[in-house]
Amino acid sequence: MNALELKNVTKKFGKVVANKNVNLTVKSGEILAVLGENGSGKTTLMNMIAGIYYPDEGEIFVNGNPVTIASPKDAFDLHIGMIHQHFKLVDIFTATENIVLGIKDKKRFNLKDAEKKVIEISSKYGFEIDPKKKIYEMSVSEKQTVEIVKVLYRGADILILDEPTAVLTPQETEKLFKVLKKMRDDGKSIIIITHKMHEVLSVSDRVTILRRGEYIDTVATAETNEAELTEMMVGKRVSLNIDRSEPKNPVDRLVVNHLNLKNSENVKILDDVSFTAKSGEILGIAGIAGSGQKELLESIAGLHTSAQGEITYIDPQNKEINLMEKTPVQIRELGVRLSFVPEDRLGMGLVGNMDIIDNMMLRSYKKGKSMFLDRQPPKKLAKSIIDELEVVTPSATTPVRRLSGGNVQKVLVGREIASSPTVLMAAYPVRGLDINSSYTIYNLLNEQKENGVAVIFVGEDLDVLLELCDRILVISSGTVSGIVDGRTATKEGVGLLMTKVKGAKENEE
Amino acid sequence: MDVNMVAQFISRAVLQGTPLLYGATGEIITEKSGNLNLGIPGIMYIGAISGVIGGFFYQNSGSEVVPFLAVLIPLLCCLLGSLLTSLLYCFLTITLKANQNVTGLAITTFGVGFGNFFGGSLIKILKSDVPYLSLVKIAKAFKTTFDFGSDMGVFGKIFLSYGFMVYLAIIIAVISGFVLKRTKIGLHLRAVGENPATADAAGISVNTYKYLATCIGGMIAGLGGLFYIMDYSNGIWSNNGFGDRGWLAIAIVIFSIWKPGLSIVSSYLFGALYILFNYINVPMAYLPLIQMLPYVVTIIVLIGTSVRKKRENQPPQSLGLTYFREER
Amino acid sequence: MKNKSKRTHEPLFHISKRTDVSLKTGIIIRIVAIILALIVCGIVTKIFTGDNPISIYKTIFDGAFGKGRTLVTIHEIAILLCVSLAVTPAFRMKFWNIGAEGQVLIGCLSTAMCMFYLGGKIPDGLLMLIMAIFAIVSGIIWGIIPAFFKAQWGTNETLFTLMMNYVAIQLIEYFLKIADKSGSNVVGPDLLTHGWFPTLFGTNYLLNILIVAVLTVVLYIYLKYSKHGYEISVVGESENTARYIGINVKKVIIRTMALSGAICGLAGLLLVGGASHSIDSNLADGRGFTAIMVSWLAKFNPFTMILTTLLIVFLERGADEVSSKFGLNSDFAQILTGIILFFIIGCEFFINYKINFNHKKRAQVKEEK
């Protein structure tokens, strides 16, 4: 019997279709991987099983019975538990308090007993957990442990894990998978969302593939291979065919030396990072999500005043300019044409509620001595970006929030390259974009490279990095684990570097 | 100052502090659910006038005033009035997801107006023949004290000289503190105020908790208004007599860093500051400066907690924010 | 069939956010809400006065725009509008300043103190200049104290500004005690004899009204067309974006609250120097709080605010008339204002959210039965 079955489930957000006629089955005692690119609707689908969203159409069956999951409570009653990608924990509570949160039983409220049970569960599956530790004092993997114990504590039979490994080190991932397999052998059903192929192959029994919100197929892991899965995931065989020209007389443009950064909790985010970006080439940055890529770019852009080390810009006239401890405005005033496409487009790069014209002004509004805004240049810029990059929008006065992901990114990238930069940094610029929009972005980056711009490209898809970049810097837990040539490097080689440093260091000690 | 003076000072401070304690306890419970109910001052007015209206009908019904009913009727009317007002606040901010600050201020505008209007016009509207709104008989029932208290000298004066509502306020505050800290309901409520999305994902009905906390908090606060009229003012309503005690109650919430236990002490402390001028030798002109002290001290506490950043002492994290599950 | 009955409860409807409401629909929803509110107000009034509804509305209208009342009403609108304008820049930045009451009062206090201590000792023109400077500077100080702590340590501004109101009130009480030894609660025109604003064209209050009219236009332009206004919007929408483009968020918070405080101080100046020529701790009369609602109802647009202030003042003045006509308490106005506010606050829901009824599913269930 199927522990869980979804039939023709559809969910829309306004005009955006997040899931369209999706089918999915999970049996008892199996691990099902849900595979799909970023933005393929995996998380939305899982949120509907967990009661966070309510489906617009379709039916859900648990153990063969049709059910309505209108709230997370309904999901719990059906023994469904979800471990969200963004942890749902109350910071000022202890681990145990978080774990017992929301449990409705007739028993007297007793944290001591609960603590004992937490330790019991942890030792059964091999977790390490301090039941009295406050969440805000915990590391990411500790928090995840709390989340998993929480679900087990209330006796979930169906566990959903949303990209659980994105924040883990390889060792932690290994541990997690062991636990998952133990649970499967216990008869539990596990759904794991991921877009990492090797994880799918190593942990799952079957794989369901989603693409752009639509259900593609479900296959047994043992009967498939990486190539076949990739093909289903992206729709066609991945021969990316991204152009890559030879860099034309590259010179050093941006030199970063011994860059260190700690976050507000005094944890090292960047640990002695050094590299050089050259004009006319694309420097890729590869790494597991959250390894410090974002903070690296932000430090260069002047958003982290607490960063330490050296960041030197060498302008085309060979003059060296120190960028340390400079704000974005000061950097601009020094004549450094540094553009930055941040990861969070609507939360950082653009203002969602403002129209395209006003968003064009974000970088340039300060120009001129007048205390008033001059909306003419941004208006022209908006028009030209809409025309040249084929942005689909009702008009230039439409709030960017209403545009689709690809068009939002075109507006952002368009603005950033409009200031004819000498250094262009882009963090995950194709995340959530469809294939066509992605290629538009690749071409734009290549164009910039050919114009002699030093391009820094943070990506998550190794295939893209290997086909697009001239050199690839691999970052792992905030340290540079290697810089390789994009033309000769192999996927395995880069993959190894992504997970290397921590283990290596431990061995040394 | 001799011992009797001190005893008198303390007992008057307690009387001054009790309405504040009701208000503060009510607001703490409310804020713990993430609702910043700025309508509390209005709700306290409504609680007071509802009790007065109930008492007025009873006292003028012609029948003999039985102490038990004289307490029960105003009490129930007060609870009902505060409950309905709190429900309105809940409906607007929780169900209709309106801005909490704006709604709360509107409730206060409405509530203060409601209280003063009926306080000033009740007799006129009912075409009653009594000259002014006075509930002395009812108040007497509220002010019944322990018989043996008066024989016990200073001790009796400080601890046993009050009507039941003074003790009720302490009991409610202690129970609230216990419930918040030691029970499942308290844990859930705090989770709702800290991080409603998390509470929701844990299967806690965020809206139910918000409704319940806000309504119960509102009813407790309403009792503060009732106490002020029936006990402190001897059953005589005067317009705006309650003054800014509602806002002072909100100040106490901050001052007590959202802990009902602490709010008992702080309420009496604020009460003491309120009447301090009677007992120290300063010119009348300085009176306002002394009355300013509670607010200044509260500001200092507010600054202090935010500078120290001790996580446990911060306002509930989602305070003032509306929760919508499908936000994205 | 059996399985069907095992279903857990089916929600009748679910709510989703909507962003596509046209301007027209939005306006219609609000107008409907106001009409409903006026009907309820009429019913409430009828209950308490027994008067017939038509006559009630006539009384309300007379109260606001009857003979000899229009000018006062317009002045009331101007003052409330001025305070509403004051809180607006901060709100656009999502800085919840509920301390406008105190900022206005401190402006009143400074003005009155100048009049009291300097009146008659220096030429009136100079006195007025000094009054203006002191009123505005004191408003600025009252505004930037909480702003500074918010910017520096994230101190909760709602609670901070709320407390500052009462500090201002007590300061006024203190001044009253010093200035008027008789112990009265007001320092009146007999003590504040100099520094009265001149009447223009023989009309009282006209100067105040003109100042606020100009201010409305200026603030609209400031918010919409100036670089500062743009920065305010960016900070309000997303602090991350502000950081990303190098806006100094702390500076903007403090600068904007200084502006809010300055306009509040100005309102205090207009109240004392241009209208009452007296001071008491109730002079702001809750306008600092009402202004928050006015500004919010107008979606922080200065021109729309003219309409929302008109509505509120119209009701207050009208209800005043109703209550005096029937010998009721004047707080009746606040009840009506409250009712109107509840309706408008409530109707926002229908503009921002969509209720989706699960018609299809229920129909399906019926069919299966």
Give a verbal description of the structure.
The complex is a heterotrimer of chains A (509), B (328) and C (369). With 509 residues, chain A is α/β, with parallel strands linked by helices. Chain A has helices at 42-49, 72-77, 95-100, 111-125, 140-153, 170-185, 197-203, 226-234, 293-300, 328-333, 345-349, 356-360, 376-388, 405-418, 435-450, 462-468, 491-508; strands at residues 2-13, 16-27, 31-35, 57-62, 65-67, 80-83, 158-162, 189-194, 206-211, 214-220, 252-262, 268-278, 282-286, 308-314, 320-322, 338-341, 423-427, 454-458, 471-476, 479-485. Chain A has 17 helices and 20 strands. In chain A, the strands form four sheets. A six-stranded mixed sheet of chain A has the order 6-7-8-3-9-10, sandwiched between helices. The model of chain A is unreliable at 501-509 (pLDDT under 50). Chain B is globular, with a radius of gyration of 20 Å. Chain B has 13 helices and no strands. With 328 residues, chain B is mainly alpha-helical. Chain C has one domain (18-368): ABC transporter involved in vitamin B12 uptake, BtuC (Orthogonal Bundle), CATH 1.10.3470. Chain C has helices spanning 2-5, 23-49, 53-65, 70-92, 100-118, 124-153, 157-179, 206-225, 227-237, 239-244, 249-276, 287-297, 302-325, 332-352, 359-368; strands at residues 13-17, 353-357. Chain C starts with a helix and ends with a helix. At the B-C interface, helix 3, helix 4, helix 11 and helix 13 of B face strand 1, helix 7, helix 12 and helix 14 of C.
